[in-house]
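Hi, here's the filled form for the chain we discussed.

Project: internal
Contact: R.S.
Residues: 53
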Amino acid sequence: MTALAWLVPLALLMGALGLAAFLWSLKVGQYEDLEGSAYRALEDEPPAAGERR
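And the returned structure, exactly as it came back:
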């Protein structure tokens, strides 16, 4: 029974951290351009020497 006293709050804390990480990724625009990333993964040519992605 004492294990539940530790595990339930720990599970709630981990869930809250996961939710916070997901909401942060939405805020910084992680999911804005999903198609562009898919096309870049299929490109054959390596990027030029000074080109950033």
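Let me know if anything looks off before we file it.
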